[in-house]
Amino acid sequence: MKKLVISTLIVSSVMAAQQSIAKSPMDYSYAGVRYFDQRLDDADCSQDGLSIYGSVEINEDLFAIGAISDASGNRGCGSETISAGVGYQTLFGADSSLYGSLSYESTNVDYGKSDSGLVGAVGIRGFISRALEAKIEAAHHTAFDGNTVLNGGVVYWFNQQFAATGDVSLGSDVSTIAVGLRMNF
User: What is the 3-state secondary structure (H, E, C) of the chain?
Assistant: First the structure.
């Protein structure tokens, strides 16, 4: 009986260790709010506003994403955007993950023509120190004749649940800088 208990403990420990090694350290269940400032080249204007965004893990690999933003600006700028989609992530090294996502977004502009389309993105997220996470992502938006964007960001974790975020997006038609707060759940 004693050998059975010890064998069970050893097998359980090995299986738990394998599961923890195979699981990505990146959390894909979170919600956040951010303030953003945006420059739209085609409209020759600037706008700023708030965005509420989130992600929910469906399983170890798949996650759902969504966001709502509202912006106002000069020269008739201003818009509301809603997006929703699905993504896939996989472990990449000990402290990072590669991911891809496909979303549908709809933008309603305050003055002018509204549009909607797909957004495809691929990127990598990882910890560069114990409390600092970084990401780099390439995305293409099909709405408004298309916009390809290179996104970079950092997340400073105050603890395992709460963090401050900073993002920069450089696109063919739109450039954005953003700061915010994020919470894992």
Answer: CHHHHHHHHHHHHHHHHHHHHHCCCCCCCEEEEEEEEEEECCCCEEEEEEEEEEEEECCCCEEEEEEEEEEEECCCCEEEEEEEEEEEEEECCCCEEEEEEEEEEEEEECCCCCEEEEEEEEEEEEECCCCEEEEEEEEEECCCCCEEEEEEEEEEECCCCEEEEEEEEEECCEEEEEEEEEEEC
Model confidence over 5-37: pLDDT tens digits?
Answer: 444 444 444 344 344 344 557 899 999 999 999
CATH number of the domain bearing residue 63: 2.40.128.100
Total of domains in the chain? 1
- Domain containing residue 109: 25-184
Give tens-digit pLDDT for 124-148.
Answer: 999 999 999 999 999 999 998 899 9
pLDDT in tens, 60-92: 999 999 999 999 988 778 999 999 999 999 999
pTM of the model: 0.83
Position 148 in a domain: yes
